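Tokens as discussed.
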């Protein structure tokens, strides 16, 4: 039996006080990767939480520049270990080395870390606000305690619990992180944590600023997110598991930010099909099947209007799905869950046009699958027909007329994204104006004439949305500096002496950060009293 990998607690790799163990599988071969990881006990989790709480106090005295330096050093170290990290991620996830891991995901990971470093250094993200007449000043500041991060299975680096977006945001905001590795890529997480620990030492940050455990039993996980010394949790994963954690956190009054599920509806209007149906069919096929469809922004539902153009479009994408290569899924659990979701959609009235069964690719796989349902059937069971089928599958909904399309839009649950395709000549404009306002309030990000799969790491990005896409529609998991604000508290200072104020709130502003002074945003100093 393989040796049990250690956990990272308070700056030390140590043998785990485990209650069990697990061995990840290579989804391309269905064989174990050869490594074994611990399931942490409640006692071990308590030790991690207490170490993070101590680090949280020390970090109060650490300047933003030191946090920024750590994030930059960490990015450098990830790039220096690029080949080993990419190879491990490929083994554990089955995702291709090129272009996915080496050319896209690893650069995105280091880019996020550097953007977070820039936000920490510049400090305008804290929204300093000064009311000179009332003598009150406020800003966003670090929370008390550690931030727990649960990473998803589909991004072994860019959403990793010790290197991804939630991690970067929490650290930049001034909080220590308790990373809980996703069981689909614990080895990748271990390698990243090794580099994080080295970067912490070089930057002079507390050793417990980054800690790592791999898995807990359900009750221990609920204790973790609800512990009095824990500040907040960032979770990306299944809706069921996320809601269990949310219930525990809510009961204790603890912050928890969830990304749960999204079908990302795409509305393709008749004029667009007449104008460029073949082009849209190719875009949709690429978007839906890329990475075996294992993206949180995968187009899971396509709404069309009944007509000859629609039938031509459907026939084209059926053929494309049938002839396209079948990708490798992230694991046996994803394969099993996708099969269950497709079966549930069929039971609710959807017809399988192509695919519908496990297999067809290398290792863990599922046939490229398209389902179809009429607008009438969809409206009869909207909740069941909005079940997320995570993977290379999508549901086509064909409405009888525009009024029915409006009714369908009103039934959509909250989603990360929603897209509308219209023609360039303007024949779809009136229908767009009817449907877009309905869709707009259902999604965090609205797209025009573009599939939703890509998520740019942009300050203007919203990778969030109404429930069940996320647990709180007011926040984003991608995009600096907005993502930092999830892991901060608003602190107000009333009549506090000038020399006791945080530097961001003093009269002088040598760093030139943006501040709201008496209702005006400025990079200047507080004006002298007249």
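Sequence:
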């Amino acid at each position: 039996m393989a040796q049990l990998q250690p956990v990272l607690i308070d700056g030390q790799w140590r043998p785990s006080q485990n209650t069990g163990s697990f061995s990840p599988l290579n989804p391309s071969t269905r064989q174990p990767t050869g490594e074994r990881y611990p399931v942490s006990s409640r006692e071990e989790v308590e030790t991690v939480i207490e170490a993070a709480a101590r680090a949280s106090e020390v970090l109060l005295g650490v300047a933003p520049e030191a946090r920024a330096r750590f994030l930059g050093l960490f990015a450098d170290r990830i790039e220096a270990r690029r080949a080993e990290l990419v190879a491990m991620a490929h083994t554990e996830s089955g995702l291709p080395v090129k272009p996915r891991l080496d050319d896209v995901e690893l650069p995105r990971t280091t880019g996020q870390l550097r953007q977070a470093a820039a936000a920490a250094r510049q400090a305008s993200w804290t929204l300093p606000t000064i009311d000179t007449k009332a003598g009150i000043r406020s800003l966003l500041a670090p929370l008390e305690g550690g931030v727990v991060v649960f990473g998803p299975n589909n991004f072994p680096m860019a959403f990793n619990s010790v290197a991804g977006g939630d991690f970067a945001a929490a650290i930049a905001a001034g909080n220590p992180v308790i990373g809980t590795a996703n069981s689909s890529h614990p080895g990748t997480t271990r390698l990243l944590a090794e580099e994080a620990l080295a970067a912490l030492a070089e930057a002079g940050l507390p050793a417990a600023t980054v800690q790592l455990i791999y898995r807990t039993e359900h009750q221990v996980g609920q204790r973790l997110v609800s512990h009095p010394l824990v500040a907040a949790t960032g979770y990306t994963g299944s809706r069921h598991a996320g809601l269990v954690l949310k219930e525990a956190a809510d009961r204790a009054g603890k912050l928890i930010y969830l990304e749960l599920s999204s079908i990302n509806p795409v509305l393709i209007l008749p004029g667009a099909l007449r104008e460029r149906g073949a082009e849209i069919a190719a875009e949709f096929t690429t978007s839906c099947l890329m990475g075996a469809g294992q993206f949180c922004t995968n187009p899971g539902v396509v709404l069309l209007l009944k007509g000859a153009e629609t039938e031509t479009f459907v026939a084209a994408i059926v053929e494309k799905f049938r002839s396209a290569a079948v990708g490798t899924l992230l694991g046996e659990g994803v394969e099993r869950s996708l099969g269950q979701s497709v079966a549930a959609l069929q039971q609710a009235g959807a017809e399988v046009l192509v695919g519908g069964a496990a297999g067809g690719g290398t290792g863990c796989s599922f046939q490229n699958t398209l389902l179809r349902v009429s607008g009438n059937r969809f409206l009869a069971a909207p909740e069941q027909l909005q079940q997320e089928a995570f993977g290379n599958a999508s549901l086509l909904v064909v409405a009888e007329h525009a009024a029915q399309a409006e009714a369908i839009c009103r039934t959509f649950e909250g989603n990360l994204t929603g897209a509308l395709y219209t023609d360039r000549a303007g024949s779809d404009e009136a229908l767009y104006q009817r449907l877009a306002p309905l869709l707009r309030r259902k999604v965090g990000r609205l797209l025009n004439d573009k599939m939703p799969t890509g998520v740019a790491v942009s300050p203007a990005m919203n990778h969030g949305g109404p429930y069940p896409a996320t647990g709180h529609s007011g926040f984003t998991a991608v995009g600096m500096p907005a993502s930092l604000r999830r892991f901060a508290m608003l602190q107000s200072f009333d009549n506090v002496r000038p020399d006791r104020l945080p530097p961001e709130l003093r009269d002088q502003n040598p760093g030139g950060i943006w501040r709201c002074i008496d209702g005006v945003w400025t990079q200047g100093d507080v004006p002298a009293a007249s």
